[in-house]
Design goal:
By secondary structure, this protein is α+β, with helices and mostly antiparallel strands. It is 13% helix and 32% strand. The chain starts with a helix and ends with a helix.
Length: 491
């Protein structure tokens, strides 16, 4: 600040010095031939007069005073040694906690202490990339994988949030809560971290989520010989996990989001009975059938029911959903599902999985079903999802992965239920030789529509409400992450 103000004064002094110089030059020209009756004593070069010295020191002192007044913290005057430490009486107690950086998370993700306690964090980087930790004005340096560092956050006066300052890491969930509550100082166990909208809840010390009981079975239901399919879909409003340790009150068909999957052939008939056991009006719309919407897709009130009949005349992966307004909020709340109508002559494969992509918009995040709140309609309208998921739960298959053996052909049926985000379905490390979208083959056994061989695909691109499938053969054993390559959603 002092240096900047001195530079500013020098710049501002240029104009008066220039004007003064011009005036002095003019006087010198006029007096050039005038004799000087009183000889002057020359000032030795490089020596300041007493007046010049006093003026210079006065200028510097003035600028320093102004600089400190403008930004005292920059000069270290009145700067707090830690978050909220100003005017805090130190208890003399030191709270030391070991925190591991792993899986783009801090584990544990919070610490409780009393006002006036001094906090020291031993940060261990157990991740595969560089991290650091910033709490208030204290920070570690950048820590390489396998290394560690100590952060002395000083005396803590109020609750605050620490974070990793590496670009993007904070946004991916690397936050550390320092909570001043007067309770005995302790680090919260990893399995008791509170839920939050960023997905930072419930992570174990190894950086992975605990097993989830509500994960949807991704195996596509087997195709039967039945040509008439009957199903009752009951609307219910229930608390479900939408990420490990994060709950929302979901609007569902038969208690799950997505709802039950229907699997049939071209020409099959479907008879669906919709029963509304919810607290508001709901409806249903099957894209797999073609019929006037005004009667079968009408909204029915709680306690009512209707029968919806249609015949599947075209192949594809079709969406069904509640069509009551605002439709976007009803779909985002969980009221969607898939109807798979196989194209004629579809070859058998070794494994067949169905993945329905959708978005979750939290209201207030809850750690259990009792505290779960309903969908945030404002966030839906603003397109600000908290999660983009496959089959309704963020990271739901981390602990219960899809499985296959090397050399097997795996078919991934994919539906983008939205309501807003497109899908760029991608299996990291794999290539697709067969891609089918919206009723047509883009590739079939590596051949395109003109019969050109050796083709391949890296993604199956789908807009909201579109569906298709892609096939891959895995030649090496390993873990292959499945993502939408819209990377802000994948991350």
């Amino acid at each position: 600040m002092t240096g900047s103000l001195l530079a500013l004064c020098a710049a501002l002094a240029f104009l008066p010095l220039l004007i003064g110089g011009l005036r002095a030059a003019g006087r010198a020209k006029r007096d050039r031939h005038t004799a000087d009756p009183m000889p002057t004593v020359a000032q030795p070069a490089g020596v300041l007069s007493a007046g010049q010295l006093i003026a210079g020191l006065t200028a510097v002192a003035t600028v320093v005073v102004i600089g400190v007044g403008v930004d005292p913290a920059a000069a270290g005057v009145g700067a707090t040694p830690s978050a909220g430490a100003s005017a805090v009486v130190a208890t003399g107690k030191v709270v030391r906690v070991e925190v591991r950086a792993v899986g783009m998370r801090y584990v544990p993700a919070q610490v409780h202490l009393s006002r006036g306690d001094r906090l020291v964090v031993d940060l261990v980087n157990a991740d595969t990339t560089t991290h650091d930790l910033v709490i208030g004005q204290a920070r570690t340096g950048r820590i390489a994988p396998g290394a560690s560092a100590e952060l002395d956050a000083g005396v803590i006066g109020e609750s605050t949030t620490g974070f990793c300052s590496v670009v993007g890491h904070r946004q991916m969930g690397m936050v550390f809560e320092v909570i001043v509550d007067g309770a005995a100082a302790q680090a919260a166990p990893a399995d008791q971290q509170p839920a939050d909208p960023g997905g930072h809840a419930g992570h174990q010390s190894d950086g992975e989520a605990p097993p989830l009981a509500g994960v949807v079975d991704p195996v596509l239901p087997a195709l039967t010989d039945a040509r008439v399919h009957r199903l009752t879909l009951t609307v219910g409003e229930v608390g479900l996990e939408v990420a490990p340790g994060v709950w929302q009150r979901r609007w569902t068909f038969n208690g799950t989001a997505p709802g039950p999957t229907l699997h049939g052939r071209v020409g099959d008939s479907f008879e669906i009975t919709l029963v509304n056991d919810g607290t508001i009006g709901h409806s249903i719309d099957f894209h797999a059938g073609s019929l006037a919407p005004n009667e079968p897709m009408r909204t029915i009130e709680p306690g009512e029911s209707l029968v919806y009949r249609f015949t599947a005349t075209m192949a594809g992966v079709w969406m069904y959903h509640c069509s009551t307004m605002p439709m976007s909020a009803h779909i985002a709340a969980g009221m969607f599902g898939a109807v798979v109508i196989e194209p004629d002559g579809l070859p058998a494969v070794d494994r067949s999985y169905l993945l329905v992509q959708s978005e979750v918009y939290l209201g207030t995040a809850a750690a259990d079903a009792a505290g779960a709140t309903e969908v945030d309609a404002v966030a839906v309208a603003d397109e600000r999802p908290d999660y983009v998921t496959f089959n309704g739960i963020a990271n739901g298959y981390d602990q219960q992965p899809l499985v296959a053996r090397t050399g097997e052909r795996v078919r991934f049926w994919v539906l983008d239920a939205g309501p807003n985000r497109p899908s760029s379905f991608h299996v990291v490390g794999a290539q697709f030789d067969t891609v089918y979208a919206e009723g047509r083959y883009l590739l079939r056994g590596g051949r395109d529509g003109f019969g050109t061989p050796d083709g391949g695909s890296q993604v199956l691109g789908l807009l909201p409400a579109q569906g298709g499938f892609a096939e891959a053969v895995f030649v090496e054993a390993g873990r292959y992450p499945v993502v939408s390559h819209v990377l802000v959603d994948a991350e």
